[in-house]
Design a protein that fits this description.
Blueprint (H helix, E strand, L loop, with lengths): L5 H17 L4 H8 L3 H9 L6 H10 L5 H10 L21 H12 L2 E6 L10 H11 L5 H14 L10 E7 H5 L5 H15 L4 E6 L13 E5 L8 E5 L4 E4 L2 H17 L3 H14 L1
Parallel strand pairs: 1-2, 2-3
Antiparallel strand pairs: 1-4, 4-5, 5-6
Protein name: Helix-turn-helix domain-containing protein
InterPro entries: Cro/C1-type_HTH, DUF5753, Lambda_DNA-bd_dom_sf
Length: 286
């Protein structure tokens, strides 16, 4: 996967295929326009082959795609820097991070919005260093200290997306268990709750608490993340995290099902204002 993670590669290929079709071109005609063999266009569109940013630019020009925001997004998916000049910093951790985690970070760094249900722990983008260390130590047993330090460093570096220009828009529904579960001890948990209060006041963050009183809900099956991209919904993806791997759902019916589930969770959760009070009250009693 020289030129991009598997998920990005498939997403990019599907979008390029849609743009070619909209331009009224066959894959053979597109290949002739850019001076390639037809098989190269087919491999790119099916995600079986990586594609360089320069090649994406050639295809977009051939398809008459002029929308700057869409062009930039597709170029970034191909491995180019974004308009802010941000490099793919996670490449420096290639030897430490598994491919699925790198895929996740890549999508997170390029998405315009992220919706997440968390049932056990605070979302990674909102964790304090001490909380992140305690969670990582608990979920990956036997880690040497230097590797633990690296994983925490990566977790904190991911949080830069909330300070980017423009920032990632984060909507999170937290089960009350997230606030009640004491991770790392009373002091660590108290500081983490304070951090959530601070985050809840940010304009790019929408936090809602799903209290125990809400009873059973559609989210009891487990946490999930929905990444959305500002230029096109065709690139949206759902991520289900497992102990040893992550599952990426890209079908429209899966996206619709999880979007409807998240909307339902937001309806049953406390409002952002009441959630802020709930978190602050929990922090005061911690």
């Amino acid at each position: 996967m020289q030129h991009g993670p598997a998920v990005r590669r498939r997403k990019l290929g599907a979008e390029l295929r849609a743009l070619r079709t909209s331009a009224g071109l066959t894959s053979g005609e597109a290949a002739r326009l850019v001076g390639w063999h037809q098989s190269k266009v087919s491999r790119i569109e099916t995600g079986t082959s990586g594609v360089k940013p320069a090649d994406v630019r050639l295809l977009l020009d051939a398809y008459g795609v002029a929308e700057s925001q869409l062009r930039e997004l597709l170029m970034v998916l191909a491995g180019s820097e974004d308009s802010g000049g941000r490099h793919h910093w996670w490449h420096a951790y290639r030897g430490v991070l598994p491919p699925t985690y790198r895929d996740f970070i890549s999508l997170e760094s390029q998405a315009g919005a992220m919706r997440t249900l968390e049932t056990s722990v605070v979302p990674g983008l909102l964790q304090t260093p001490e909380y992140a260390r305690a969670v990582t130590r608990a979920t990956v047993e036997g880690l040497p200290e230097d590797r633990l330090d690296t994983l925490v460093e990566v977790r904190l570096a991911r949080q830069d997306v909330l300070r980017a220009d423009p920032p990632l828009k984060l909507s999170a529904v937290l089960d009350e268990a997230v606030l009640r579960r004491e991770v790392g001890g009373p002091g660590v948990m108290a500081r983490q709750l304070e951090r959530l209060v601070e985050a809840a006041r940010l304009p790019q963050v929408r936090l809602q608490v799903l209290p125990f009183a809400a009873g059973a809900h559609i989210g009891v099956t487990g946490p999930f993340v929905i990444f959305s991209f500002s230029s096109t919904s065709d690139l949206d993806v759902v991520v289900l995290d497992h102990l040893t791997s992550s599952l990426y759902l890209e079908r429209k019916e899966d996206l619709q099902a999880y979007t409807e589930a998240f909307n339902s969770l937001q309806i049953h959760a406390l409002s952002p204002e009441d959630s802020l009070d709930f978190i602050a009250g929990t922090a005061a009693g911690a």
